[in-house]
Specification:
Shape: globular
Number of helices: 16
Structural class: mainly alpha
Low-confidence stretches: 376-388
Order of helices and strands: HHHHHHHHHHHHHHHH
Number of strands: 0
Strand content: under 5%
CATH class: Mainly Alpha
Number of domains: 1
CATH architecture: Up-down Bundle
Radius of gyration: 20 Å
Amino acid sequence: MVLAAFNLRLAIADVPPLLDRIQLDFGLSAALAGVLTGLPVLCFGAFALATPRLTRGRSPELLLVGCLAVVGVGAAVRAGPSLAFLFGGTALLSAAIAIANVVLPGIVKRRFPARLGLVTGLYVMALQVGAAVGAGTAVPIADGADLAWQGALASAAVPAFAAAVFLLVLVGTDRRPVDTENPKIRRIWRDPLAWQVTAFLGLQSLLYQSQLTWIPVILQAGEFTATAAGVLLAIFHLLAVPSSVLIPVLMARRNDQRSAVAVMSGLSASGLLGLLLAPRLAFGWVVILAVAQGGLLGSALTLIVLRSRHSGDATRLSTMAQGVGYLIAACGPALVGVIHQLTGGWELPLLSLVTLVVPMLLTGLRAGRPGYVGNVTGALKEDTLSSG
């Protein structure tokens, strides 16, 4: 699980540090470069919605193996000699990651029912570490090994193929499909609780993607050099790891998850307000934002698992939450950029992100109440959630 999750962000996070070189080689405009960096999030949403057709009657573990193999193929393809290879490979690996994103919560629900919080925390941690490794090693691989940006991007295929082989050996020929789902779960698109989980994940992802895209630019507009801003972004990824592990563990030990959502949302608002009102203390605010975003990502993915009775339910809720949620998130960086372009400063964009914390908090508080999708009025049983 951890090794698989590590590869689901590694091949995405290695592009931004190399983007200036890619632009130079292909003559990419800023707009087309933005499409390249935004393509994975769009694919996360679009292909997540198609996942139920792939999972029906199939082993989710073997599907995950296939996804990792496709990630490896896509990583290699994007290093090809033309824009078609670059965008095609990126879309291919992003589609595979989207499907893997959806099936992972169901696998956790089925394989680790007594350790939901811990295992969810570990795979969220692996997502963060993979992103940090991808961002931090792309330039050294390109320069140190004299592989250029093409070699650095292609190198992400190696751990993806290794993870696919390891997982295939581990699960063998297990072809069990997902567990029998609650019949009411088929009406998930009309379930208020499912929409609350979806809205919370979508708004959390929007804030996260917006911060990853624009915080380095905001820092450089102040007193930070490009190198210092890049280092601080890597620190952002790493400092998100502890809270991404701890929060899911704590949430799974309680019937009610609203307190965790409230605390992490408060930290997020504090960090954004700090950047707005006291930009000279940017390092401290970025630390707070990292802790908040790690905890919020862990919260969103944990709620998918905890609000589902069966692994089949978790897969369907994951499809809806991540499909719609990532499509919402894809709009964030572009909207922040438009507001900045219209105003010429970063005050209103930051204030807009602070404002979005409010609906994120409200939907998170609703999603954090005891209940299951398909049975909104039902209470969660204490023993079901006393895992860690």
